Amino acid sequence: MMYPNRLVSVYATFGLLVLFLWVWRSAETEVIGIIGSSIELQCCYPEAESLNYNRNRILWQIKDRFSCFVAGYFPNENMEKYQCEEFKRRTLLNEPKQGSASLQLSNIRIADEFIYQCVIQKNINGQFKLIHNESISLKVAANYSKPVITGPVQLGEEMMFMCNSSHGYPEQRLYWRNEIDNSTMNITVQFTKELDGTFSVFSTLKMKVASDTKLRCTIEHKQLHQNITTTTPVEVPELLHKVDR
């Protein structure tokens, strides 16, 4: 993408300042965005003054990728034509107000997982100077479907149960429990990456069943602070009947 000299100059100025401040300010805010939904990336200028389109420049960019313009405002400049293709028609810069230059990003994708930088400059005596720099780390996630337990299948003295769930992101922990004694199980787990970048998971459990019990299959999604569980009863007479057949 080609940028006019004026914009290249501004990017160079922003880039050097952001790089310098990044060493000084290593931490960033982390937010979670759900695939297909929208999120507001907040950028709050702590000083008690309103941001103004006439005296402020606002720039949203990706850390270490200064050539990619996400969104922003420069006085008397149409910035949409410089926007990276992957962000076109998906961003909305909120109206500058008391200390806020937040950005709305819609239709979140896995490819949106970056550290975003909000840079604000102010016109001071005819020159734009940096007054605020903030970094937001966007982590992308998707809910897994409710686990489905199937089986049992007779394997000699053992019974095998299967559990599957789909279209979650990123890979998460799947585990089984025996609800009678709350014990964990020996299992196998396999993740498959789908065409849309999300994951499906398939797990098998082999066990000897000596008495009635309940099995629980759980997907633990740490980013979303969510456990999705399915429980199924296991009755010995039913199993023995299947074995006899």
TrEMBL record:
Listed Pfam families: C2-set_3, V-set
Immunoglobulin V-set domain span: 28-128
Top-level taxon in the UniProt lineage: Eukaryota
Keywords: Immunoglobulin domain, Membrane, Signal
Span of domain Butyrophilin subfamily 3 member A2-like Ig-C: 145-227
GO cellular component: external side of plasma membrane
Subcellular location: Membrane
Chief location: membrane
Entry GO MF terms: signaling receptor binding
UniProt feature coiled coil, ranges: none
Stretch forming the signal peptide: 1-29
GO terms, biological process: regulation of cytokine production; T cell receptor signaling pathway
Protein's name according to its UniProt entry: ICOS ligand
